[in-house]
Amino acid sequence: MFFNAVRVNGLPCKDAKDVSVDDFFLAANLDKPMDTTKSKAGSNVTLINVMKLAGLNTLSISMARIDYAPKGQNPPHTHPRATEILTVLEGSLYVGFVTSNQANRENKLFTKTLNKGDVFVFPQGLIHFQFNPSYDKPAVAIAALSSQNPGAITIANAVFGSHPPISDDVLAKAFQVDKKAMDWLQAQFWENNHN
Amino acid sequence: MFFNAVRVNGLPCKDAKDVSVDDFFLAANLDKPMDTTKSKAGSNVTLINVMKLAGLNTLSISMARIDYAPKGQNPPHTHPRATEILTVLEGSLYVGFVTSNQANRENKLFTKTLNKGDVFVFPQGLIHFQFNPSYDKPAVAIAALSSQNPGAITIANAVFGSHPPISDDVLAKAFQVDKKAMDWLQAQFWENNHN
Amino acid sequence: MFFNAVRVNGLPCKDAKDVSVDDFFLAANLDKPMDTTKSKAGSNVTLINVMKLAGLNTLSISMARIDYAPKGQNPPHTHPRATEILTVLEGSLYVGFVTSNQANRENKLFTKTLNKGDVFVFPQGLIHFQFNPSYDKPAVAIAALSSQNPGAITIANAVFGSHPPISDDVLAKAFQVDKKAMDWLQAQFWENNHN
Amino acid sequence: MFFNAVRVNGLPCKDAKDVSVDDFFLAANLDKPMDTTKSKAGSNVTLINVMKLAGLNTLSISMARIDYAPKGQNPPHTHPRATEILTVLEGSLYVGFVTSNQANRENKLFTKTLNKGDVFVFPQGLIHFQFNPSYDKPAVAIAALSSQNPGAITIANAVFGSHPPISDDVLAKAFQVDKKAMDWLQAQFWENNHN
Amino acid sequence: MFFNAVRVNGLPCKDAKDVSVDDFFLAANLDKPMDTTKSKAGSNVTLINVMKLAGLNTLSISMARIDYAPKGQNPPHTHPRATEILTVLEGSLYVGFVTSNQANRENKLFTKTLNKGDVFVFPQGLIHFQFNPSYDKPAVAIAALSSQNPGAITIANAVFGSHPPISDDVLAKAFQVDKKAMDWLQAQFWENNHN
Amino acid sequence: MFFNAVRVNGLPCKDAKDVSVDDFFLAANLDKPMDTTKSKAGSNVTLINVMKLAGLNTLSISMARIDYAPKGQNPPHTHPRATEILTVLEGSLYVGFVTSNQANRENKLFTKTLNKGDVFVFPQGLIHFQFNPSYDKPAVAIAALSSQNPGAITIANAVFGSHPPISDDVLAKAFQVDKKAMDWLQAQFWENNHN
């Protein structure tokens, strides 16, 4: 299966005697700017999770570098199995998350503009985004997540770009647009900005 | 705060000597059809969580009845803190969920048509929906969730109906529609089908 | 081994690419009345756990339908690894649980009569029962449990019907009856009302 | 409330600056033989849990000394929130536990005679007992449990000695004895062998 | 008390209606070089944990910036409640950890030299260090930890600089030096390189 | 790998039908005095963990007997994955632990002299020790730990006796002694007092 707890069990565990330092190391190049031009969203997420770094298995943490083109964004998404903490290395970011349904808490949006060195928390499972408001400068962030396999669900991709597509009977009513508009949305190319 | 683990701590705990059977009981009327006409989605979710039934505190479970009008749906949503298991009491349901981003697993849609008595699982944090395909018959389901405070994020509401709205700079690019279309979407009344 | 945490690890996990929608679906017939006449207790529990529905693995939830004959019961039992939440679909139930030993809490019995649509919680590991007080009407409940493998220990069966039997030296003193009475108890046929 | 997770939250936590070494220490006299004559079962359990030793709060462990008279026992019981590990300090013990219902695992009894220095494990939530087979020698054990508030449910006491009693409609059928026998059982004095 | 699980409960939780975006934000200045000259170790750790950023409560993650002077180090230490993942922003680091006692695993040292952009994992509770091998260049790292309150135990400080000091009867034999050497060690000023 | 969570998954789990009582039993001889003369520290730890008693797998508990020669000690060490609770069977012990770095909690030492029957708690991951202050009497303790694979890190051994040794560039500055003193320390024979 493909969610955290099962991955934890599903991934092989080496016998202690076979473990080496390289199980805990990755030459991840997180210092290198990544190409943000291939993604319509204008961002690029390099996530170091247990699939890339076996030593993370069961240790409930992972790390990512995120590059943002000018006016680029890491579009609204969730991590089904993790909270995210983020700091800005370059440029600035307009970030936000939306609370879940609860008595007197109907989808409240919390936003903040982050400058270099600021820290922000996105609680587990909530829809959140980061946007680079600059017209000319890129932005870079380092994020950490509270799972070795946090997963990511980019809302637009999962809703309009799934394989196969979600029935437009469902989506047209859910998003209150006519089927033609929905078909047009589904006809877009929904790429993934995650490495 | 407003997410599970904190709710657990945040909710008061009675001293043992003050606990009574009524802390574990709720006259929830889960046998009664609920009104599905007030929701554009044509559904009504009655969730019995720790805010309604104090004895659930820390016990990692809750239960819900879901009513679906003909052609009604419980639109694409996630539970940030719970897996859901569901069985159909009346009618039939077309259900599905979308997997998260993972190597070779780009947003795969899994769907099934459920008849009375069938059981289906929606893994934690994944976007899922239930749709009543009938033109004339209502449907009813009983669901259980693996948290006393699972939370629910209705995607369309959280993305297009948050308070305040998400900047259309963000949404227009994220959903690849022009700002006018986005403003129109945001102008809809996004109500909540959860009780 | 045979208890939850080990089952979680002990059950095979499919590689993501081999998972299909049928791993999350079961045609469980929870809408169908089950035969309550084969059980002396006059009840029948149909539990959908990870052994029947592989997709539940690690997801900490399961669901059951319970049928009760008139004057039938789900006799005193515990779930070693789960809390139970229950709602009544048909008829009514007299339910209860007994608290564990604690300062000033010596085995206090909490009971309630549940009608259709009511919800009740049985906290993890506590001895509980459901009894159908009606002379002529069956009762039906849907329950959910906070483990994919909650286990069930029917007290009378485990104490008097184990294989091999518990020494009557132990039981006679524990239950304060003479060995003859104990031997008679152990001679009963202790069947299991769980499917 | 009165079960583990809630106790954890329910118990007050001192501010770091107010903590002293005495929060982690108890003059528990676990070296002293305890009186086993007051209990019909012929045993005495001295449990050091979070109610007695505040520093255990949230640390998921507790410890007990158990004294057994000749032919005395710690009668069939469960710990709803803990596994138990036990070693024999004096004498010998005949111990056992009964597995929960599972496919092909109907209430299997596992037993062993333990001598001084032996170690045995009783998995979480399973019914277990310890019996001193000697006609003339006491026995002593040290046990540890995987919760700061494991709880204990002595089966006979909880079933036949609860306050108020469980309806004999329920018990007579559950234990397959007539109501007169059940009333006699319930008329016994069911004391608690736990300190 | 003063360790993680208790802090989680011990820290106040706001009511949902009182939460604001500032509970999830900190102007932490993680982009600014920190002064490494005040610490004999030649390093400076700026940890953003739940005491500084309340929104982290219960979310099991925290983040830190670490500055290293030329030849400076983050000396051997442990995090009693967290795994650490680290990436190098500037310069290079020689890092290592020592495994715990286990069959055939007697305190094996694993080391690696990290360059900019490399990622390394220090498993929970193991003694680890980072050392800047450069004679003239500072180094900078960003680390994340799998607890909102990971704690840090700098070995030399805790062993030789505790308040009050550990008895030199204990330390002299533990470290196999004479008491005079031990008294000299304890006479050093053991400062803390953590902010 | 070689730390707890992975061990849990890494260790094989038997199929229920293959489990026998011997998976839960060990003739551990915890009643027998162990030889404390082979260890310079003058102590001997006999730990019953999941590697010795397979039935402990996933059950989060283990048990140990510790023997102390006159003036012997269990030198400063940590358990990376467990809290320890201890009671004294013979003699007396001077015990202590050092708190982790936290605001206003710089490495505070908590100590107590324990007599027979006293109980003490060493919170997870903190450096602690036990010392037998008697010139002529041995001491014996029984301890329990909140993991089936708690691990143990003897500070002096891990820091000065690792394989290979930690660079004396690192240690000399960390411990503020010259390299010659450090080389002398590393030249000692660092044996392990754990069985």
Radius of gyration of chain A: 18 Å
Distance from N terminus to C terminus of chain A (CA atoms, Å) equals 21 Å
Strand fraction of chain A: 25-35%
Query: Taking strands numbered 1, 2, ... along the chain, how are they ordered across the largest sheet of chain A?
Result: 2-3-10-5-8
Which chain pair shows the most residues in contact? Answer: A-B, 67 and 67 residues
In quaternary terms, these chains amount to homohexamer
Largest sheet composition of chain A: 5 strands, antiparallel
Q: Unreliable segments of chain A (pLDDT under 50, ≥5 consecutive)?
A: 1-10
Along the chain, the helix and strand elements of chain A come as: HEEEEEEEEEEEHHH
How many strands of chain A?
Answer: 11
**Count of discrete domains of chain A:** 2
| Overall average pLDDT of chain A | 87
Helical content class of chain A = 10-25%
> What would you give as the CATH superfamily of the largest domain in chain A?
Jelly Rolls
List the helices and strands and how they pair.
Six copies of one chain form a homohexamer.
Chain A: H1 4-10, E1 25-26, E2 43-48, E3 62-68, E4 73-78, E5 84-90, E6 93-98, E7 109-114, E8 119-122, E9 127-131, E10 139-145, E11 153-154, H2 155-160, H3 168-175, H4 179-187
Antiparallel strand pairs in A: 2-3, 3-10, 4-9, 4-11, 5-8, 5-10, 6-7, 6-9
Helix pairs in contact in A: 3-4
Family (chains A, B, C, D, E, F): Belongs to the germin family.
Binding site for Mn(2+) (chains A, B, C, D, E, F): 77, 79, 84, 128
Organism (chains A, B, C, D, E, F): Oryza sativa subsp. japonica (Rice)
